[in-house]
Automatic annotation (TrEMBL):
Lineage of the species this protein comes from: Bacteria, Pseudomonadati, Thermodesulfobacteriota, Desulfobulbia, Desulfobulbales
Molecular function terms, GO-annotated: catalytic activity; iron-sulfur cluster binding; metal ion binding
CDD domains: Radical_SAM (cd01335)
TM region positions: none
Cofactors: [4Fe-4S] cluster
One Pfam family, short name: Radical_SAM
Radical SAM core domain: residues covered: 9-238
The protein's name: Radical SAM superfamily protein
InterPro entries linked to this entry: Aldolase_TIM, BchE-like, Elp3/MiaA/NifB-like_rSAM, rSAM, rSAM_sf
Domain of life per record: Bacteria
Keywords assigned: Iron, Iron-sulfur, Metal-binding, S-adenosyl-L-methionine
Provenance organism: Desulfopila aestuarii DSM 18488
């Protein structure tokens, strides 16, 4: 397979075929994100992508999921994306789920009919980085969309029958707006009602503006207790009709996995127990991105 630069994928795609169709991120301006800094966004040429699909057809017969990397595969023009998904369907018929990252810009560029067409060709899951539902925070981190746009685009994906997994970031609003961020994120998640929510805890990386703001004392990252309080407030404010809220990423201090709405109260009780010192938190040295 042809891989260029660092490859990133959601934790739930650990066993998927990783088909790199773009390099970098089409936005690449979020102040906390160092994933694609220094990488230029490109859509890979069709011949390379098709050769990788042929390779996967010969060598990846045991993997039944496929993830389209990198940053934002949904931004590929419809005709080319249809050709890629059609080739996957034809040459890898054992694939049960194709997924990709999606951001508000790329979702906006697709019509409802185009998204429906992609779903029919096998794209059944999209990962969207919300990070926060707080408009002040979204602006500060240069996310490129406000909460109303996030809600609109998240609902658009769901209306096309594509499942949605949303990532939120504990700690992203710094100490000052920690609780507002938690409440507002719960509001936006409830309005979108995704199938999956993944909460990560922010870990600052040195090649990002957010890291420099922290070391220069402009915005301070909340500590473990405050992040846990944030998680509790966020979960309490999140009302899903049926969804999985998990915070079991390696960056989190307390792993949780709650099926909503039924497991919400017991999970909140566990968070409260941890806040009261009755459940051990993950030590700092064991956290990872
Ligand atoms: S967080 Fe996502 S959208 Fe923002 S720069 Fe990183 S990859 Fe791109």
């Amino acid at each position: 397979m042809d891989y260029q630069g660092n490859i990133f994928r959601p934790p739930s795609e650990a066993y998927s075929i990783l088909l790199q169709v773009t390099t970098g991120c089409s936005h690449n301006k979020c102040t906390f994100c160092g994933m694609y800094k220094g990488s230029r966004f490109t859509i890979k040429d069709d011949a390379t992508i098709m050769a990788d699909i042929d390779f996967a057809a010969r060598h990846c017969r045991r993997q039944n999921r496929l993830f389209l990397c990198d940053g934002d595969a949904l931004i590929i023009p419809q005709k080319r994306l249809v050709a890629i998904l059609s080739a996957i369907k034809e040459k890898l018929p054992w694939i049960e789920r194709v997924s990709s990252y999606a951001n508000t810009k790329s979702i906006k560029m697709k019509s409802a009919e185009q998204l429906e067409e992609l779903r029919q060709l096998g794209l059944t899951l999209a990962y969207m980085g919300l990070e926060s539902g707080d408009d002040v925070t979204l602006k500060t981190i240069n996310k490129g969309a406000d909460s109303a746009q996030m809600i609109e685009m998240g609902r658009k994906i769901k209306a096309a029958g594509i499942k949605l997994s949303i990532t939120v970031l504990l700690g992203i609003a710094a100490k000052e707006r920690s609780q507002i961020h938690a409440t507002e994120t719960g509001r936006v998640l409830s309005a979108i009602d995704p199938e999956f929510v993944g909460a990560l805890s922010l870990m600052l990386t040195p090649n990002t503006p957010a890291y420099h703001e922290h070391v220069e004392g402009k915005r301070y990252l909340p500590g473990p207790q405050e992040m846990l309080e944030e998680l509790g407030t966020m979960l309490a404010a999140t009302h899903l009709s049926q969804g999985l809220f998990h915070a079991n990423h390696a960056s989190n201090y307390l792993p949780i996995k709650a099926r909503l709405p039924e497991e919400k109260e017991q999970t909140l009780a566990m968070i409260n127990a941890a806040l009261g010192g009755k459940v051990n938190l993950k030590p700092e040295y064991m956290r990872a991105l």
